Amino acid sequence: MITFDDVCFAYEDRPVLQHITFTLKKGQSLALLGPNGAGKSTLLRILNGLIFPERGRYAFDGETITKAKLRDRSYSKWFHQRVGYVWQDAVVQLFCATVEEELAFGPEQMGLADADVRRRVDDALAYSCIEHLRTRTPYTLSGGEKKRVAIASILTMNPAVWTFDEPEAALDADGLAWLSAFFTDLRGAGKTLVFATHDRAFAGRFADATLMFDATHHATYSAITSEMI
Q1: Which residues touch 49 (CB under 8 Å, ≥6 apart)?
Q2: CB-side exposure of 151: number of CA atoms within 13 Å?
Q3: Average pLDDT value for residue range 193-202
Q4: What pLDDT does 229 receive?
Q5: Suppose 18 and one of 67, 121, 174, 217 were both cysteines; which one would form an S-S bond, judging by CB atoms 3.0 to 4.6 Å apart?
Q6: What distance in Å separates the CA atoms of residue 150 and residue 142, rounded to the nearest whole number?
Q7: Per-residue DSSP letters for the chain?
Q8: Percent of the chain whose predicted confidence (pLDDT) is above 90
Q9: Is CATH 1.20.1250.20 what the domain over 2-228 is classified as, yes or no?
Q10: What pLDDT, in 10s, does the model give residues 128-151?
């Protein structure tokens, strides 16, 4: 489903990704591990078509993802409905006046009927245990509440691929328990997951493989082993 073949990327003259190669099949889960600044967030942005490799190839469902490809509005809409991105800082992701509007935005852009949009919003609010936040303004929420709203806003889109940048950030103990149950449900539903984390135990529970970044911005792909958990 996802292929990186010798992908390289640099910000100006500063290399951030160096010769990254891996393949992820439908329903598999990949954890991105390594120090801050090693390239994990950059890889997630490439996965979501926000930036593009300077060298090498990123393919999604057999199609090479390029800037020109995503200029095609029909293809871009298809692609962004299938790949969801939960940012590390939920403030970057949230922009609507109320939580309800935030959750409705994606399905509305998909062109769903009003009744289907309302159903998706209601289901996501209930599943995420944030029904009481329906009419709240996102910027007034706590960090953990913002993270749940950000995740729920992707849930209403029901993407095949979920990407997360440090999903545990800003969550308290109850939020972490909910997140673990959510990841279990995503895995059970056959979703493909790619997530950056510093928690090896979390990676061991929810990933089939890891991409371990080092300070030189190279990364080593390996299957999860019991020693990592």
Answers
A1: 65, 70, 76, 79, 80, 83
A2: 29
A3: 95
A4: 45
A5: 217
A6: 12
A7: -EEEEEEEEEETTEEEEEEEEEEE-TT-EEEEES-TTSSHHHHHHHHTTSS--SEEEEEETTEEP-HHHHHSHHHHHHHHHHEEEE-SSHHHH--SSSHHHHHHHHHHHTT--HHHHHHHHHHHHHHTT-GGGTTS-GGGS-HHHHHHHHHHHHHTT--SEEEEESTTTT--HHHHHHHHHHHHHHHHTT-EEEEE-S-HHHHHHH-SEEEEE-TTS-EEEEE--GGG-
A8: 90
A9: no
A10: 999 999 999 999 999 999 999 999
Domain boundaries, given as residue ranges, for the chain: 2-228
Q: Are 53 and 46 a contacting pair, CB within 8 Å? A: yes
Tokens encoding 81: 């409905």
